[in-house]
Design brief:
This protein is of the alpha+beta class and about 160 residues long. A hairpin with a 2-residue loop joins β1 and β2. The chain is globular. It starts with a helix and ends with a strand.
Amino acid sequence: MKLRYMSFALLGATLMIGTAAHAQDNYSSGIFKQAKAQSFPCNNSQFLQDQQEFENGEISADQFEDVCGMVTAVLPAKKTRSGNHGYFYVQVASGVTIEIVSDLDQMNAPKWPWVAVGDTTYVQGRYYYDNDDSQGIDWTHHGTSSSWPHAGYVVVNGTEYQ
């Protein structure tokens, strides 16, 4: 019986390694490439620099970011005072994940969740940093406001959601 469970564990590990290798193949030299021959200006190094500068107190204003990576976790949708939101985490560097917040009421997307663990993603939005435990990228939809003038979006395995 133990051998059977070990086989499933090995199969799962093999699938995860294959998915990670596929995600890495799609990211090279700061450009995230999708199967539809689209390219997105992924800039994880800029994000990591901004994150460090927030932690050091060198910057305090929200930053416009372009990040890409593999989805590591997907949370259930949650209703907040500003509407329904979907949450997922993207690995942007070894050992570094960031929470992505999508306003489901504003996005042109199917019913949540439209992202799954192992998917490759590109995200454009606003990076906010309140403290080490409260940070993420939001404004990942097409809308803007006087407080945030940049439209954002999410690309999952080549499908764009705004």
